[in-house]
Design brief:
Mean pLDDT of chain A: 87
Strand content of chain A: under 5%
Largest interface: A-B, 29 and 37 residues
Distance between the termini of chain B: 33 Å
Helix content of chain A: over 70%
Helix content of chain B: 40-55%
Order of helices and strands of chain A: HHHHHHHEHHHHEHHHHHH
Largest sheet of chain A: 2 strands, antiparallel
Strand order of the largest sheet of chain A: 1-2
Radius of gyration of chain B: 20 Å
Oligomer: heterodimer
Number of helices of chain B: 11
Shape of chain A: globular
Largest sheet of chain B: 6 strands, mixed
Low-confidence stretches of chain A: 1-22, 369-376
Structural class of chain A: mainly alpha
Shape of chain B: globular
Low-confidence stretches of chain B: none
Strand content of chain B: 15-25%
Chain lengths: 376, 273
Amino acid sequence: MAITTPPTPTAATPTAETKASRAARPFRPSLPGWVARGIVWIALGWLVLVFPLGREAFEVQQYSEAVIFGIIGLSLNVLLGYVGQISLGHQAFVGIGAFTAAYVVSVQTQSFWLGVAAAVAIGGLQALVLGGVSLRITGLYFALVTLSYGLVAEKNIFQIEELTGGGQGQPAPKPEGFATDWRYYYLCLAFLAIVLWIDWRMMRTKAGRALLALRENPKVAATFGVNVKVLTLFAFVVSGAFAGLGGALLAFNDTFVSPETWSFNLALVFVIMTVVGGLRSRAGVVIGSAFFALLGYLLEKFSFLQDGINAIPGAPDLSSEIAPLVIGPVLLLLTLTLFPGGIGQQIRPIQGWLRGRRFDRHDRGPKEVRISDVRA
Amino acid sequence: MSVLETRGISVRFGGVYANTDVNIEVGEWEIVGIIGPNGAGKTTAFNVITGFYRPDRGRVIFKGRDVTDLSVHERVALGLGRTFQNVGLVKGSTVRENLVSAQYLDADYSILAGMAGAPRSFTVERELNRKAEAIADLMGVADILDEYVVGLPYGVLKRVEIATVLATDPEVLLLDEPSSGMGPEEAHELGDSLLRLREEFGLSIAMIEHHVPLVVRVCDYVYCLNFGQLLAEGLPEEVRNHPQVVTAYLGEDADDPALSGVEHQIESLLDTE
């Protein structure tokens, strides 16, 4: 009996069955599985929400900056990740947002909220203008336009004394009710949450899908009925508005804005942190951005790192200003050659696990994240 | 009455006359085939009809309306759907995402409402998803809904692409080589689905196609283009045996009466293409 039965069907049936039952009953973690996930969630929540409470004010200010960098990273992610255009003048977007907010609050003596709203609006407006340019030129040429825009802002717009308060900078006092660094930190977290929500919903609804289509192939997007020009401009406005928000929050975090802050170096850090974080991965971009914001702080905090680097003969002096510009390119190289999806790609298995799926070490997400994304 | 019509369209790229005075008509419920050798200007004509190219001369009339000056997405909104020769899909997305993306104009909420997470956007999204599943069922691609486009075989992609165009809710379907990359059996099945689509949705179809048995089986009328000009038009059998069409495909020597059994040769050649 066993001999006459052909081996293939018997071998095939169980796998077909398990496949079918697997499809019918999706994976549910066991109770210990849920407990483990819960512990990790709580730990993450503690790190973000509770841990800063016990730290010094100047440290919390650094954490706020990390959160704000997350917003800026998400802003650049809209351009780089969704539209596929590289901006080398993002520091100008953010800087103009910062000065606008400070100007509205200090010179015009309006409320904090109006200052933030103005920064968001101006941020969207300047991106609209640059978006118009990007409809005509793309890639490297567009990058050059944004680069020169950044320089124009640095040399001209940031020299307008009325706006920037001249050499000593424009004061930007923290808003009432959020005057301490701790309270302000939670305000920044709330804004980051809003930005994350908007980004998430955008990508899950028609605007986001249309953007993904037109980044890959504008012709295909057009045959889906998408007005390619309008949608590209719209994405630029979204990116600019996020950048303006980030700038405003940075201004109030430092309680003043100085023209010297907004140099080309900063634009490089913004691009690097977004790409290293992982284009089109919200969690990755936020983590990458926060990491770069905290890099100088971490080097100082863990002085053995600094000592270790200093022990290397001929090692560069890693002060907190230039640390991102030394470590950044190294990480960028590693990202582009080994993990094109950046941090987002590497944390994908963990993300899936935290959401109650199996831990799948090989989950790399869509294969499509390529170096050519950065169309330069 | 014709639902789609080109009136003497001419397109020139530098010194190349890609289309010269091309008149194509697609009647309601009609399946029209466009054949011709490579470089004959077939895809150029499609690009003019769908709005990717502006013709130097001539008009495009769709549903009795002159659409020559409308942009691509406006024509899509009127009910003009098309596929591409080299697969017009978002390759980094899944089949499902493509089918939902294609319903862009059906997504009945504003972009801002979607971004804010308005409750309406959630319900509409669920509807779009259901419709995507229904269309996938219809085109026989339901089992690969959640697979990424990038790894799928070419013949399957062609079917997914037709499903995607259907999702845009068209009245006229322009198919650019729908059976390329398919074997004879798959091509036959494709013919069945095209005939069924016409029955069920009252679609009119214009297709560029090299697979002659498919053209002969499903097309009501055939145009043959060569060097940007209409060479012949008529019923499939007529066009297929038209001496000039034969010449265009096989070259001048085919005119030579000394060659015996030319027709037989042609038939076998065209059939295997």
